[in-house]
Amino acid sequence: MNALPPNPTDEGRAALIEALGSRSIVFVGLMGAGKTAIGRKVATMLSLPFMDSDQEIESVSRMTVPELFERYGEPEFRALEQRVILRLLENGPQVLSTGGGAFMNTQTREAISAHGVSVWLKADLDLLMERVSKKQNRPLLKNPDPRGVLEKLMGERYPVYATADLTVPTRDDRKEIIAGEVICALCRYLGVAAIATGATTDEVES
């Protein structure tokens, strides 16, 4: 039985949210790092709203992300992405998952720094390949050498992701465990005291 990082008590949850103020918890990282899955779990554990910038982009444009890439190209997509994220950041506190390229935009990074706490979910290449190979809707991977594409993206983006407020390693483990580690890291970053009940994996639902 694997021990989970403790779940926040009601009192601890309130203390963490108070420390956040109007800031959002913003997940950054490459495709396949688990930003949406872990973000949703963190939002549930903290009783905060969850938003996904890609889903919001698709909602406002009435097109999928691959369709936007194909029709308008990456520069136009990134401009739309920036506008959507800046608007979403006005609605904190919340948990926000962003697209893999969003944090590369200087203005977007500055807005996240001003209105959020950024969390980089850092994954290794093998884990990313395993996850993204299961999905067909990754426009940047429509390439004969997807592993090479990911390696190139890691080289370009990881130094920028490393400027995030927090770095949490992710791996092939239960999302509750990774989410608990994110919350523990947030507590340390925000100066919130231990807020735990001490659940185990057998006591926490998927």
Please name the CATH topology. Answer: Rossmann fold
Number of strands: 5
- Our Rg estimate from Cα atoms comes to 17 Å
Detail the poorly predicted runs. 197-206
Name of the top-level CATH class: Alpha Beta
Structural class: alpha/beta
Strand fraction equals 5-15%
Numbering strands along the chain, what is their spatial order in the largest sheet?
2-3-1-4-5
Estimate the mean pLDDT confidence: 87
Major β-sheet profile: 5 strands, parallel
Q: In angstroms, what separates the terminal alpha carbons?
A: 15 Å
- Assigned CATH superfamily: P-loop containing nucleotide triphosphate hydrolases
Principal-axis shape equals globular
Which CATH architecture would you pick? 3-Layer(aba) Sandwich
Percent in helix: 40-55%
Helix and strand string, N-terminal first? Answer: HEHEHHEHEHHEH
Structure description:
Helices cover 51% and strands 11% of the residues. It has 206 residues and is an alpha/beta fold. It has one domain (10-185): Rossmann fold. It has a 5-stranded parallel beta sheet with strand order 2-3-1-4-5. Helix 3 (53-61) crosses helix 4 (65-88). It starts with 9 loop residues before the first helix and ends in a 16-residue tail after the last helix.
Structure, briefly:
It is built from eight helices and five strands, in the order H-E-H-E-H-H-E-H-E-H-H-E-H.
